[in-house]
Every structure is written in C-alpha cells, then in structure tokens.
Amino acid sequence: MESSVAGRGELDAKREEIRRRLRTSALPLYVALSNLLRSEIQEGRWPPGSQLPTLEQLSDLYGVARVTVRQAVGVLADDGLIERVQGKGTFVADALAPRKVIRLDSSWHTFVRMLDGNLPETLSVEQDARLPPIPDEEGWAAPSYRHMRRVHRSGSEPYCVIDLYLDNACYTLAPEAFDTAMVIPVLGRLPGAKVQKMAQSLRILAADLTVARQLDLPVGAPVGEVRRVITAKDGRVLYLGIGQYRGDLVVFNTTLEVPAE
Amino acid sequence: MESSVAGRGELDAKREEIRRRLRTSALPLYVALSNLLRSEIQEGRWPPGSQLPTLEQLSDLYGVARVTVRQAVGVLADDGLIERVQGKGTFVADALAPRKVIRLDSSWHTFVRMLDGNLPETLSVEQDARLPPIPDEEGWAAPSYRHMRRVHRSGSEPYCVIDLYLDNACYTLAPEAFDTAMVIPVLGRLPGAKVQKMAQSLRILAADLTVARQLDLPVGAPVGEVRRVITAKDGRVLYLGIGQYRGDLVVFNTTLEVPAE
DNA sequence: CTCAATTTGTTCGTATGTATG
DNA sequence: ACATACATACGAACAAATTGA
C-alpha cells in the first residue's frame, strides 16, 4: 500500500516537472506542446505512418488535460503533419517533406565554393560607415567601411540575414562584384592576396522580432548568430560580418586534422 | 497635404506591422513586447542610466494599449533591467550583469586544452554497445563500443549533455582515465597516435523534454547539437559523440587560415 | 449481426489570464 | 479601478466511428 502511494506521489512529481518545463516557455501550453510534439515527430520518435499514443496517453505522458492535448494535436493536424481518425487514432503523415538543409563548411575552400554563385538580396547600404567596436585581439579598423544588410535565400526561403562591413579600400578595387555577389569569395580572389585569416564565432540565440521578420520565423525560434572577422596580414580588419542563420535550415561543419605528436 | 497624409499612412502601416509581428509570435502581447524591449535595451537603443520613453509614447510607438506596455515594462523591472520611479519615469539600470559563457574552440589543441581537467558526471554506461548507423563517408564501425551518457557542468550549471560511443579497443587501453576524465583528450594522448581527424557538425534545435530537464532549460529553448566523429588513419570510428549544448552558455569558435593563392 | 471496448469528436461549465477602453 | 471581450486550460459527460470478439 505504502509503496503504491509513494509510486503515485513520484509519478505526480514527475508529471508536475514536465508540466513546469512546458510552462516556463511563456507560450500557451497547447502551443508549447504542439511544438514539442512536432520536433519529436521530425526527430523520428514516431515514424511516418505510425500511430501516436492516444489522447489519454499523451495527456498522461505530458501532464496536461486531454482537451489541451487535443488542441495541440489539432495544430499539427492543421499543418498536415498528422492525421486524426475518429475511433481509430492519430497517425503520423506518410510523406514528411524532407528539409533541405544548407551545409556551411568551415574550411576556406569549401566555404568559399559553397558561397560562390549565390546571389544575395541587399536590403540597405551605407557607403561610409565606421566599424562597430571590436576587441583588440581581433584586429584594428580601417578608416572607412561599406556597410550592407543582406538576405540570403535558398530558392525563395530566406536562411540568413547578415550585417556586413567591408573595408572601402577593398570595395573600390571591385565595386560591381562586391555590389552583386557574395562578399567573401570576391574578397578571397582580390589581387594581392591580402586576406590572411578568418575568425568565426557562433552563438545560439532565439530570434528577436527583426530577425524573425526577415527570416520568416516565429519570434523565439532558434537561430545561429555567426560573427566573422577577416583580417589582412598586418591585422587590419577587411571584413566584419554578423549573420543570423535559421536553425532549422543550416548545418555547420568542421573537420579538424589532429596533429601527430 | 498629400505627402503628410502619405506619411501618416506609412507610419500607421509600420505601427500596424509591428503590432502584427508582436501578435503572431503566439506569445502574450505583453511578453512579446517585453522581449522586444529587452533586446532593444541590450542593443543599446537606450543606454544604461538613460530614461525610456513614457508609457504613453511607448504605447504609441508599438501600437498597444498603455496598460499592456506597463505590463511589459513590469517584466523587465522584475528582472532588474530597468527601474521605475513614480512621477519621474522609467530608467535603464546602470549595471547589466554580463553572462559567463563557455568558449568551444575548434582547433584541436585549444579544444583539447579547454576540455582537459573538466570532470563530467556520468549518467549511464553500456559496456558493449553497437555504434548507431553512420554514413559511409564518416568511417566504419569497430565491433564493440562503450556507450556513456554524461553531463558537463560549469560550476553547478549544466551546459552540455552528451551521448558518446568509444571503441572498446581504445577503452581497454586506459579504462580508469576514460571512466573519469573527458574522453577526447584521453583519446588524443593514447599511445600509438591512432587518432587522425575529427569531423564535427552542429545543428541548432529547440530543446526537447529530455534535454530540457538535463540542462535545466524550458522546453523549446535554443540548443546546439554537436556531432563529433573521430576516426583513425584506417577510417575506423574511434569515437562518436552527440552532445547538446545550452545555447545561452556556449560560444563556438573557429579560425581559418586562408591559403595563399 | 450484435455488443463491448477503444478512440477521437463535441459540448458544457468553470476558472484564470490577457488586452482593451 | 472597472467593465468587457476573448483566449486558455481544466474536468466531465456524451456522441460517433472503428475494431474485434
């Protein structure tokens, strides 16, 4: 008897914890739950064609009322991700449109090759801008930069929005190229081979209002913010780019050769 | 006249658009607005110590009711980001607490140095596991792996939970070391220098329930999923690790030397 | 064919939170 | 501070479709 009571108490505690985790996101419970279910389905927890647990079971599993589970499931049904059949159950749709992801490689050659040929859309240009403050170890600023805000698309889907600063001394060497093509490959091909290295750092953020708008995402969706600094041999900053990438469309790759000891 | 009408119409359209964006986020309006204000403050739109626009002005600016603005501002006040003084105004707090982040470098040396000395907590061990399926180009599987699930902490805060598979042929060479220390540095120091390269790919996801619990995050919070494959010279997979990192605590760094043409 | 069990669909009533004027 | 409207979430009861005994 006691053990059964303890078991029940434990279960309730667990249920309560799950509930709390879902709650803390400030989203309505049914939205939070539908997001969770969506990503679990996309991760393959319930494969295409298979039956989901019943509303009662899900209600139990996540510690929310059946009606609320139903509401969450309804969101996914509206999206066509699942199908509900009265008297039978809820099923994962057969054809999940496979996501076409963009692979960002971080060896210089593959990175540049990947970028090359893409045509960004320029949202705004500032001809004579100052570089935002950067830490000393990243390099030192040239007198004047060309500041552009651009959007990169894969087909019609935007996957990156980027604020970039290009040393005007570089820009004047090939203005038409810089205006239309991706900046980094052009910079790499610039005569004189001034480019020495590119430092890159990535933070993971939730999309704010501006970014959500430009990447066509809900506010709060996970995005990767990449900061790239390209310097010349003398430490002058030729390029600074701060880009926000849609988390659901981009994969970042690195390969490290391990030095023999 | 016409231009003034057009200007007004434009303004209203902009207001309407902001409003719509705030709305569509599925967050309660006041939460969405507080997020927006928070990021604008952090971006420096209103510097520390300065006065925010009045509730009326903000109400106008964002197209929401004064009471709703007040509610949004209340969230930030609770967070200590701003201070409200009756009859005077609302002010940005002087000291914004900086976040302590973990830098994950991806040159082999710095990466290993960063890991070294950290003591992970092991959640579970499976002595004789099979490697999960991997694409051919990543390498080929050894007959048997040691599978561990571990949590990494910075102080008491968990920042990474990782599922790792270690070739048992490697494990038996230094079982005590592999049991307690970080696997990758130990693997790198293993006599024979079998390790040749490490491939790493990073996806950006929303935390699912399991990860949310283990990293003490709300469900849906942005996390980075890092997949690391370490192979020997002959292509055998010595190590596979799939780690989930808290987005708010981790920065991923890379430096690329640009080959001279 | 019928019946019972299962599972989703629907509707009420109630309580609370959100947003406006 | 108040009145109003609407969304969210819960529990409960009942309806309708499906399945298999």
Verbal overview:
- The structure is a homodimer of 261-residue chains.
- Chain A is α+β, with helices and mostly antiparallel strands and 261 residues long.
- The first copy, chain A, has two domains: 2-92, Arc Repressor Mutant, subunit A; 102-252, Chorismate lyase, CATH 3.40.1410.
- Helix content of chain A is 34%, strand content 33%.
- The first copy, chain A, has nine helices and eleven strands.
- In chain A, strands 4, 5, 6, 7, 8, 9 and 10 form a seven-stranded mixed beta sheet that branches.
- In chain A, strand 1 (82-85) and strand 2 (89-92) form a beta hairpin.
- In chain A, helix 3 packs across helix 4.
- Mean pLDDT of chain A is 86; it is low at 1-8.
- The interface between A and B is large, with 64 and 61 residues.
- Chain A binds a DNA duplex (21 and 21 nucleotides) through helix 4.
